[in-house]
Amino acid sequence: MAMRGSCQCGAVAYSLDDRPTQAIECNCSICRRKAHLLAFVSPDKFTLETPRSALSVYTFGRHVIRHQFCSTCGCAPFAEGVGPDGKAMVAVNLRCAEDFDLSTVKVLPYDGASKL
């Protein structure tokens, strides 16, 4: 396990096989409001360590990303969906990562607001 993350209350936790080196800062309506900093990984590199029953799901726009959030505290540690290449992906909110220095990640701006 290269890194671990969770929601604020701990009811939702995940681990990644690799530590991300870059992330996007999207300006779409949900990412901007929630201040997400997202790293994308393939589903085989992501492990949900807690039951899916602790999650609620929200989709909007083109409905290609399922934003997962804790049903208890409302924190959104990850999302699942399909990337532009048509492959399954997991978008991990690095602001929910534990013991992870965000200054080690190259942050790329992404204009998601114009993509909806």
From TrEMBL:
Note whether Zinc occurs among the keywords: yes
Q: Where is the CENP-V/GFA domain?
A: 3-111
Keyword hit for Signal: no
Which keywords, in A-to-Z order, does the entry hold? Metal-binding, Zinc
One family name in Pfam for this protein: GFA
Q: What one GO molecular function would you report for this record? A: carbon-sulfur lyase activity
InterPro entries cross-referenced by the UniProt entry: CENP-V-like, CENP-V/GFA, Mss4-like_sf
Member of which family?
Belongs to the Gfa family.
- Designated name of the protein: CENP-V/GFA domain-containing protein
